[in-house]
Amino acid sequence: MDWDVGRIQAQMNRVQPVSEPQRTQRQDSSSKSGIDFEESLRRAAEKTPRPEVTISAHASQRLLQRGISLDAADLEKISNGLDRAEEKGAKESLFVLRDLALVVSVENRTVITALHGEGAKDNVFTNIDSAVIL
Q1: Quick check: 131 pLDDT over 80?
Q2: Region 19-41: what's the mean pLDDT?
Q3: Suppose 93 and one of 37, 83, 130, 133 were both cysteines; which one would form an S-S bond, judging by CB atoms 3.0 to 4.6 Å apart?
């Protein structure tokens, strides 16, 4: 390869160093009000209502097949149990409510499956990390 050193040197002499662009002083809304991002995020999380208990399609089908109904008081107990399990860091829990066994996803606040009395007796529950007696 044949280099034209003179031509390259001439081009190099024309190149100017890059200067940093002028930055405009921008004030965001959090600095104006004195609230930082973390505080804003915390406040927003407090305003967000806790999701209610969800019952998966599979669990709904099992409840219907077994003639089991959950009333508002039962759902409230499950919700309170979810809150307690979440505080302890649980992910998947076995909830025992009267003669019902419910496998619940604490993270999603969802009842995954439900077993009634004798049906739960001989079962082995896997993939759970906690149990909540309601």
Answers
A1: yes
A2: 63
A3: 130
